[in-house]
Every structure is written in structure tokens, then in C-alpha cells.
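Pipeline run #58 for the internal structure catalog. This entry was flagged by the ingest filter as a single-chain record with no existing model, so it goes straight to prediction. Upstream metadata was stripped on purpose; only the residue string is passed forward. Reviewer on rotation: M.T. Logging verbosity set to normal.
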Amino acid sequence: MKAAVVRANEDVRYEEYPEPEVKKGEVKIKVKMSGICGSDIPRVLHNGVHFYPIVLGHEFSGDVVEVGEGVTKVKVGDRVSGAPLVPCMKCDDCQKGNFSLCKNYTFIGSRIQGSNADYVVIPEQNAVPFDASISYEQGAMFEPSTVALHGIRCNDYKGGEYVAVLGGGTIGMFTMQWSKIFGSKKVVVFDISDERLALAKRLGADEVVNTTKEDFMTKAMEITEGKGYAYVFETAGQPATMHIAFEVAANKAHVCFIGTPHVDLTFTPAMWENMNRKEFKLTGSWMSYSAPFPGEEWELTAHYFATGQLKFDPGFIFKKIPMAKAQEAFQMFKTPGLVQGKLLLVNE
């Protein structure tokens, strides 16, 4: 088969590669779409892979073309997305259903062959079937949706309250939508881009706040009549939004950091006192899995995409590029601010 093979730093070659074989309990998928995740960028551009050569790709969709012995979850012809985590199922965390916390896992597209290829083989349990009314583009976006929903679960979310989503990227948009699906009083998206905020409004945000405006905090608090937000989700992984989270949180709020920072993060004593005085609860969120594996994050994404309650917008996608041009696709990330949205690699 053909695959986009990472041979060395900044060296992705579309070339012949051994086609994976299906074993007992496994499923072979003909890949239609494979998204480039933010975590893939340092793998290609900054020597971030575990080994060379490797085929990346862990946000994907396609059709089942072969099933191994004993497979019952899917059949040939099914349209599926793939959950990329392969937990050990034996450690204490796995036994408790905390698969995201498994330390003995492997991972499709970073530790074993991924979806930037004609075909990928995955365990049966990792195949997530979805309705034919859902596009392959949507199917490749299951993982960011599930990351958002996992954050909702980690934050002990309940409806009927004000919700702040800090960051208008893909995960932020899904976090906003899940908050609404499960009954927020009002959900507000914060971002620096008017274009992203317009997308948030199209997808159902009740209010939006541009944090580049001088009086943005005044507006943000006025929306809640000065009380602040009972649930705060930081999805950008930026120091600025992480600081804002401490400011907009209400007394006894629940604050969840879904975003991953890539620079040092510091708080002044006055900033930190926000947490002490408000007595809010701060938690993190990692990946997107729960019991039974891969979890309701994946099941509900398939369901709510099919009903249309979880919306998909063309604005999610920056560009679709042929798999054969994967090298050019990754080079685009070297220009700061160029790629706005998801970049999908397409098998034509």
C-alpha cells in the first residue's frame, strides 16, 4: 500500500509501505480521511516521534474492508472512526475503567502504525461505527469531540449554570456544544479571533467574548450578573486563558484545564488567591476514554452527530490535502497562524 512515512525530521515521504495484516479480533479499515492533530506537529517538525520510520495519524475515518476471527462489533462495509488508545487492560487504572491513565498503553499513530496510509488495522474494540448520514470529514473529527466530552465528565458537569469556554478552537467548539446539549443556562465562548467567535455563534454559543478588547472582563461578568461562571473549561492551553479561568470562575466553581500548555505557567499570589477565596475545584482532563472501552465519549459522539444535535461546520476544516502531499501539509505548520482549523489528509 501507499503511506505517508516519516523517515526523518521534517521528512515525510509518500511511498510503498507494508500493508498491515488482520489478526484475530482485529479490523482492517480503508482510510478515507486522516486529520493532523496538534500533537503530530512536533513529531514531524521537532524530532518528536518514538522511532523512524513511522506512519502517523490517529484522527481518522473510513470503511471496514476486512474483519479478523471472532469480530462481532462491526462488519465489512461499515463506516467507522477509530479510537487510537490501546490500553493494556490489566493495570490498576484500566481495571478501574480509567483507560486514559494507563501507563502500559500503546497508541495508534504514534507508537504503532497510524492512519496516514491506505489502510490501518485496529483492535475490534477501537472501531466506532457511525451512521452513513455522517460524513467522513465528521468521522475524522470524532476524537476532538470525545476529548471535549471527557473534559465535561471530568469536571462533574451539571446543567442549569453559566459556562465559560476559554478558547475557540475545535475542542472548544465541541466543549461549548456538549455544554448546551446537557443543559447549560448560558454558555459563553472566549477567544481572540472574531472569525472563530462567529463560528461559535453559528454553532450555538449564547454569547461570545473577544479577550483582546480592553473591557472584555467587564462584559464577561455582566453576562452572569457579576457572579461568575459555575463551570469553566480552558481548551487553548495558553497562559492567558489559564489565568482568565481563575478570574471568571464563580464561588465554588468547577474549573477544568483540557488544553495542554507548552511554555512555563506562573501565577501571582493575587491570581492564586482567586482559587483560595472562591474555593473552586480545579481538575485536569486527559484524552477521552471511559468504561466500557472506549466509552460514552465515543458512543455519544456517534449518536449526537447522527441526530444533528452535535453540529459540524465547514469552518472546522482549514483545508483538505491529498495524502500524497503530506510533506507539504506539515510544512504549512511552520508558518505561524497560517493553519486555522483542522487540516485533513485525504485518500483519493
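catalog note: The chain has a mean pLDDT of 96.
catalog note: The first helix runs from residue 40 to 45.
status: ready for reviewer M.T.
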